[in-house]
């Protein structure tokens, strides 16, 4: 599928490149983001004006456009705003809360569970979520993408117990379609694989990343494709995201969503219920609702297990079973995500 006519690209802006332009226009500066929302720095108590360069402010224009102007407590804004609280050392909140280091099979291939392995396809993301459990992941130590994927692919090919590969990151859709096409073709050629899963937030925060070519790559693969998006609040799923998820569905892709339970973002049953309804409308089913991984810098998002269980109970009373996500936590060393 390298064939989508190059001539088209020369005569009008190439669809497969327009997302790069969108990405380049992202907010990398909290003052500019606040200004676009009609807010002043003084409106945000505890704002951290000097975020560390290792996990700087990064927000796409598309995501910012879904925020409510003038609302310092907007649930989307809250997910990306750096607070001074992040710098506090809090017992139990660590750099690598899910013990990725122990699961690393070398070169960015993580295996924790039977039958599936997770490939860190890239360290880059289009948005920096302040609660991210990989916010301190040593991406820089991964080596070059090409060397990494060669070695990871060799390991996958040598392990017939694997039926599924998960592309994760970072965000695998930060790779160009060319790179993804090569990677998918290589995975396609590994006979014991049956499924390809992609964990990505880009259909939500940069919907035009879901190009026709990307959909065609998945549709043409022998592997059954699953795309797991990441949305935490119904407001994140605008008309553009709905359209992009529609493209994936029409390409035969199964679309699921995972959310993180976040204090003052989505820790109420009305919001979670509306999220499930909105996801279904867009063609996605709720999969996991994660209890926050205790990553250093994210303690202010934590919701208690007791409260989390009550929320799920309420959802069960209000929604069909298929719209109730599984409430789980990742326990280092466990052989699956653990139900709570
Ligand atoms: C979360 C995770 C998976 C996926 O688990 P599922 O329960 O299949 O969604 C796979 N590998 C690793 C390393 C993970 O962290
Ligand atoms: S998109 Fe995912 S990997 Fe990237 S910062 Fe957000 S939570 Fe972390």
From TrEMBL:
[4Fe-4S] cluster binds at residues 125, 129, 132. It catalyses: L-lysine = D-beta-lysine. It comes from the Bacteria. The keyword Iron-sulfur applies. InterPro entries: Aldolase_TIM, EpmB, Lys_aminomutase/Glu_NH3_mut, rSAM, rSAM_sf. The keyword 4Fe-4S applies. Belongs to the radical SAM superfamily. KamA family. This is L-lysine 2,3-aminomutase.
């Amino acid at each position: 599928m390298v064939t989508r006519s190059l001539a088209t690209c020369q005569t009008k802006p190439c669809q497969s490149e327009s997302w790069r332009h969108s990405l380049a226009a992202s907010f990398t500066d909290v003052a500019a983001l606040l200004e676009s929302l009609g807010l002043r720095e003084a409106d945000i108590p505890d704002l951290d004006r000097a975020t560390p360069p290792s996990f700087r402010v990064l927000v796409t224009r598309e995501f910012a456009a879904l925020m409510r102007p003038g609302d310092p407590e907007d649930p989307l804004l809250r997910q990306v705003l750096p607070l001074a609280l992040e710098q506090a050392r809090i017992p139990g909140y660590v750099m690598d809360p899910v013990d990725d280091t122990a699961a690393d099979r070398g070169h960015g291939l993580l295996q924790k569970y039977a039958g599936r392995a997770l490939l860190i396809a890239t360290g880059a993301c289009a948005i920096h979520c302040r609660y991210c459990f990989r916010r301190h992941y040593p991406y820089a130590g991964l080596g070059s993408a090409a060397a990494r994927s060669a070695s990871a692919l060799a390991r996958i090919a040598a392990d017939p117990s694997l039926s599924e590969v998960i592309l994760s990151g970072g965000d695998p859709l930060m790779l160009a379609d060319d790179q993804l096409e090569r990677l998918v073709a290589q995975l396609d050629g590994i006979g014991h694989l049956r499924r390809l899963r992609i964990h990505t937030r880009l259909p939500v925060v940069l919907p035009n990343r879901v190009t026709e070519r990307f959909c065609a790559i998945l549709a043409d693969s022998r592997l059954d494709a699953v795309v797991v998006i990441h949305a935490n609040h119904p407001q994140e799923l605008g008309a553009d995201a709905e359209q992009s998820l529609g493209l994936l569905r029409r390409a035969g892709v199964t679309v699921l969503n995972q959310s993180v339970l976040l204090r003052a973002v989505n820790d109420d049953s009305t919001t979670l219920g509306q999220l499930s309804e909105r996801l279904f409308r867009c063609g996605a089913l709720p999969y996991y609702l994660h209890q926050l991984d205790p990553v250093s810098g994210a303690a202010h998002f934590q919701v208690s297990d007791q409260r989390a269980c009550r929320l799920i109970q309420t959802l069960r009373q209000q929604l069909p079973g298929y719209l109730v996500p599984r409430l789980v936590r990742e326990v280092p060393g466990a052989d699956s995500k653990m139900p709570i």
